Amino acid sequence: MSKTKKRGTAIAVAGAVAAVAIGGGVAWAAFTQQSESTAVAAGADTFEVVTVSGTVADDSLYPNQATDVTLTVSNVNDVPIKATRVEFVPLTDGDITNIPNGSRTYCRGKVTLVTRAVDVPISAGTAGNPATGTITLEDGLRLAKDTDNSCQGMRIAAKWKVTTETAA
């Protein structure tokens, strides 16, 4: 093959490669744009207050005796929750009844209530059908060993706060 013919073939091949590299052999043209959506409404739900009720295993204590406290937590939220802490509400003289007013402060000081960290899962519920969870505080309420006769017959209205968080 002559030099001129080789050069012509090489130029033709180079031109074909360039045409494929530039446009793949096909011409493309496109217009582009971006559009913004309308506002998408979302927000945080309201975490409704749970209700807590309680009972004691023994409501007639003697000095140096304790009783278990059982708290029932009712969840009306449509999301599962978890109870994480139970903390007693400090007693006042008004929480001690059925004894003379003069003995209430002394007797209140003879009652020990417990605070505890807990990990109690509670399912999702509704207002018409709340889900419940139970927390038992072993020896949650105790009457001191040195309690004297002035506290005989007293009634104690103890309360606890339960901390909950969403568990979804």
From TrEMBL:
The keyword Signal applies. Keywords: Signal. The keyword Signal applies. Residues 1-29 form the signal peptide. This is DUF4352 domain-containing protein. The lineage of its organism: Bacteria, Bacillati, Actinomycetota, Actinomycetes, Micromonosporales.
